[in-house]
Amino acid sequence: MKSLVSRVLPIALFALAGLFIAAHGASALADAFPSRPVKIIVGQGAGTTSDILARLVATKLGASWSEPVVIEGHTGAAGTIAATLVAKATPDGYTLLLASSTNLGTAALSVERPQYDPIRDFAPIGRIARVPWALGINAKVPVKTLQELIAYAKANPDRLTGGSTGPGSAASFGIDMLSRKAGIDILNVPYRASALAIQAVVAGEVDLIFTDLALLEPHVKAGTIRLLAAASAKRLRDYPDLPTLGEQGIGGIVIEPWYGLVAPAGTPPAVVSALSDALTRALRSADIRAQILGFGYEAIEETPAEFAAAIAADIARFSGVERSADLQPARGGERPAAIPPPSAPYPNR
Question: How would you class 180 by CB atoms within 10 Å of its CB: exposed for 0-12, middle for 13-18, buried for 19 or more?
Fold first, then answer.
């Protein structure tokens, strides 16, 4: 027995020492992070929501760390180019992605699948903001409710059109889901940018759009676009009288785009935790929250595990949606020949 104890005890002590060293090493790693500049990769251009939110967070994080946080843009392919770069980056916490529900959600399910897995290849840090979305329609279309829109579409088959930013975008998924669930046909017309798609609705080139409420609001106030439904799970803060799609009989369509920070998979948990803590502190600051609120967005505070669950929920929600494989980006709002010109009157007006 004594011989057995003499053999086992050193092994146990060695294992305990190893655990202590590992724990101490992880703690030291977190305490030392960051020791050099951190880079945030953004998949959209300067002045976009992604770029603005990334710079807000970068400024706050850089000040708290006394290390620069640099913004680097890699635009294109609905943000999947940027996401691919981060998925393949060294997993040390020094290269992050300003992720969105597009490049880690809908685009991952698009026809041209990206070269990464939105769950397997990233370590979620935390979301930054949720964006209220709504369904808007050209004010000249003779409908005022969602049910009237559905009746109009059924009475005028092959007439209704919707603007989006192409396959893989939340706007495209919204059109496809509404078409499927309501049993109507909506021609999905892609544009290169949300601004072009919204202008197409204003001009009457297309009839409707799912998009950011803040982008629709000026046109709603000008009387050129009418809101038909909130695309969220509950009514919007700024439009409490606007019913959701579900309240109007079309359940299962919830489009609540978000933005957040992720690191490459394999980033040490201690570093992920340090990044999450720093992001939480930044989002709790009054100036950041005020700016996010000023954009019409909702600041989000959550753990990496909660963020991971949100990503998985988005993928599950959109995974069954039918997608069109033959859409090509419209050039500057150019209209496909199949769509009636803006001068054509709406029938039954």
Answer: middle
Neighbouring residues of 261: CB distance < 8 A, sequence distance ≥ 6? 40, 57, 96, 97, 98, 99, 125, 126, 128, 275, 279
- Mean local confidence (pLDDT), 213-234: 95
Contact 132, 138 (CB under 8 A): no
- Buried b / exposed e along 117-156 (16+ C-beta atoms within 10 A): ebeebbbbbbbbbbbbbbbbbbbebebeebeebbebbeee
Q: Are 278 and 61 in contact (CB under 8 A)?
A: yes
Query: Which has the higher per-residue pLDDT, 258 or 47?
Result: 258
Per-residue tokens: 236: 């919007």
Kindly report, residue by residue over 241-291, the tens digit of the pLDDT.
999 999 999 998 889 899 999 999 999 999 999 999 999 999 999 999 999
Report DSSP state, residue 247. Answer: G
Give the CA diameter of the chain: 98
Give the model confidence (pLDDT) of 94-133 as tens digits: 999 999 998 898 876 664 667 899 999 999 999 999 999 9
Domain ranges of the chain: 30-130+257-318, 133-248
CA-CA distance, 90 to 99, in Å (whole number)? 17
For residue 186, give both structure tokens.
């909506």
pTM over 0.70: yes
Tokens 């979301």 label which residue?
Answer: 127
Q: Which whole-number Å values give the CA distances from 344 to 65, 185, 233, 266, 335, in the listed order?
A: 59, 19, 36, 56, 13
Kindly tell me the sign of the dihedral angle through the C-alpha atoms of 339, 343, 346, 347.
negative
* CATH homologous superfamily, domain 133-248: Periplasmic binding protein-like II (3.40.190.10)
223, 326, 331 from 341: Cα distances, Å: 21, 21, 16
CATH architecture assigned to 30-130+257-318: 3-Layer(aba) Sandwich (3.40)
Q: Give the helix/strand (H/E) hosting 72.
A: strand 69-73
